[in-house]
Amino acid sequence: MRYFDIKPDVAGGLGDHTVLDTHVHPPIIHKLHYEIEGWFGDALVTTFPCFLVTEEAKQALLKMDISGANFADAEITASDEFHELQPEQDLPDFVWLKVDGRAGHDDFGIASNYDLVISERVLDLFERLGIPSAVIEPFIEKKS
């Protein structure tokens, strides 16, 4: 199977209610609050070190029986800037995509440079659901 390095759209950032441990790198997020500043239709979005997917993407991924990730609730809010710049835009429900797989082996993994790595079948799904702002390149596994 082929794997891809994907840099999802940064649609927002960590909100004030996020609980994290910054004594390690990357920080460990215990509770995620994601504040959306601008959204252009991507089914997968990010802010370091977290990833979120739409509820529609979550359901499709569960049907695929994916490996290397699970899901958790997150608090999602829209910033004043979002309401000002995209007042007519409705947001879908988002969930936290918690990646714990091995890059280049599981459907989801984190590379040594902290980029998200996904399998070809997951990429196909995201392309169908829409990831217009993502940057995608073939994943080349570094030999240690």
Description:
The structure is a single chain. This protein is of the alpha+beta class and 144 residues long. The chain has one domain (3-138). Helix content is 18%, strand content 37%. It is built from three helices and 13 strands, in the order βββββββαββαβββαβ. It has helices at 55-64, 80-85, 120-129, and strands at residues 3-7, 12-14, 19-21, 28-31, 33-36, 44-47, 50-54, 69-72, 75-78, 94-99, 108-110, 116-119, 135-138. The strands form four sheets. It has a four-stranded antiparallel sheet. A four-stranded antiparallel sheet has the order 6-7-10-8. Strands 2-5-9 form a three-stranded mixed sheet. β11 (108-110) and β12 (116-119) form a beta hairpin. The longest helix is centred in the middle third of the chain and has 10 residues, at 55-64. It is globular. It starts with a strand and ends in a 6-residue tail after the last strand. The mean pLDDT is 95.
Ordered list of secondary-structure elements with their pairings:
Elements: E1 3-7, E2 12-14, E3 19-21, E4 28-31, E5 33-36, E6 44-47, E7 50-54, H1 55-64, E8 69-72, E9 75-78, H2 80-85, E10 94-99, E11 108-110, E12 116-119, H3 120-129, E13 135-138
In a few lines, what is going on in this structure?
This protein is an alpha+beta fold and 144 residues long. The chain is built from three helices and 13 strands.
Task: Please provide the count of β strands.
Answer: 13
Q: Based on helices, strands and strand pairing, what is the structural class?
A: alpha+beta
**What's the total helix number?**
3
Number of domains: 1
DSSP strand content: 35-45%
Terminus-to-terminus distance: 21 Å
